[in-house]
Amino acid sequence: MSILEITLIAIALSMDAFAVSITLGLSVKKPKKIEYFIPGIYFGLFQAIMPLIGYFAGTLFAAKIMAFDHWIAFLLLCFIGGKMIKDSFSKEETENKEASFHFIKMFLLALATSIDALAVGITFSFFRINIIIAVIIIGFTTFLISIGGVMVGNKFGLKFKSKAEFIGGAVLIIIGIKILVEHLFFG
Q1: Which terminus of the chain has a lower count of CB atoms within 10 Å, N or C?
Q2: Tens digits of residue pLDDT in 79-103
Q3: Can you give 133-151 as a three-state secondary structure string?
C-alpha cells in the first residue's frame, strides 16, 4: 500500500472527526486558541492508536486468513464507507450549543469517531505496510483536519458536514474496490 493510499485512507477516516469538530466549532462564539487544538489532539491520537491496535490484532490471525484477506479488506472498507455515505444523508440535527471541550466528552467523541480506524488497522495487517508510518500519517492528518473542522464550524456552520462524510465514505469504498481488483486480477 502506497503513501498516497494511506493518506487517502487517513483523510477518509478523519471525516467523522471533521464533522464532530465542525459541531464543536459551532458550540462556541469565539474559540480560544487551545479550543482549536483540543479536538485535533484527541481525534488525532485516537485515530492513530486504533489502527495500531487493529493491526496487531489482525496479525495474530492473518496467517489463517491470507486466502481471503482481500475480501475482508474490501468488505470492511465498503461497510465503513457505506455507513459514512448513509450518515451523510441523515437529517439528524447535530448542533449542540452546549458542547464543550471537557475531558470525558472529548474522550467519548474520540473513541466513537475512531472505531472505523480499528477496522482499517485490521485491514492493514493483511498487507506489507509500515504500520508506524501509517499511524503517524493517520494521526497527523486527523489532527490537522480536526483543527480545520473547528475553524469551519465556527465560520460556516453545518453546511459542509454531509459533503465531507459522503466524500470520505466514497474514498474508502474506492480503495476497497481497488484492493479487491488488484488481488483478483493482478495478485
Answers
A1: C
A2: 877 887 887 787 654 444 444 688 8
A3: HHHHHHHHHHHHHHHHHHH
